[in-house]
């Protein structure tokens, strides 16, 4: 997508192909905005980052100095981290089974701490997070789509005002189990599909933030390969070594 600042209109790029985390880009279809070539934005900015940033800004409305936990450091989870980073959050805890998501990519989006559930021993992930934050985080985001992680995300928030936002889609549409006492004591939980964004109002603002180099979308790209290297791209995807990989047709 791109924005024509002269006409105040937003356009969508329909000539790129995304296969999960591998994106094929045709630079001949790229169109400029404000006289600047936006191929970078079009190929790096697939739609997954929108609900992540929106969830942090619009749904949770995280504040400067607050604490955040993000369950799942894929494209959506990292976008939540980016939104929280731009709001000046003091601590961002990433939860994932792949430590590379933190060391290689997560830190560039402001993630300060990392928890691997497989290494928590007998403790639950929520217990570890509560110990790290002296009682729980202010906001938690579930970006995986598992009932167990949804429950853990909820339990990792602090009593009284902790808020949990669900972005992951549970494949089996299974119910989650929450303590009624925790809800009565002030914790809240909600879901969101598009991060609470209103396209006509919010997307131009986000595009402008990217063009001003405030919103880091380029950081989502971990690899750029030629189309002939497509097998390598899928190999990186299977091994969990890439967040977004762009395959260039003309290289």
From TrEMBL:
Annotated InterPro entries: ADH-like_C, GroES-like_sf, NAD(P)-bd_dom_sf
Keyword hit for Ribosomal protein: no
- GO terms for MF: metal ion binding
User: Does Metal-binding appear among the keywords?
Assistant: yes
From what organism does this protein derive?
Eruca vesicaria subsp. sativa
| Quaternary data | Homodimer.
Enumerate the spans annotated as Alcohol dehydrogenase-like C-terminal domain.
75-200
Name of the protein this chain belongs to: Alcohol dehydrogenase-like C-terminal domain-containing protein
Indicate the transmembrane segments per the record.
none
Report the cofactors: Zn(2+)
For this UniProt record, the keywords arranged alphabetically read as follows: Metal-binding, Zinc
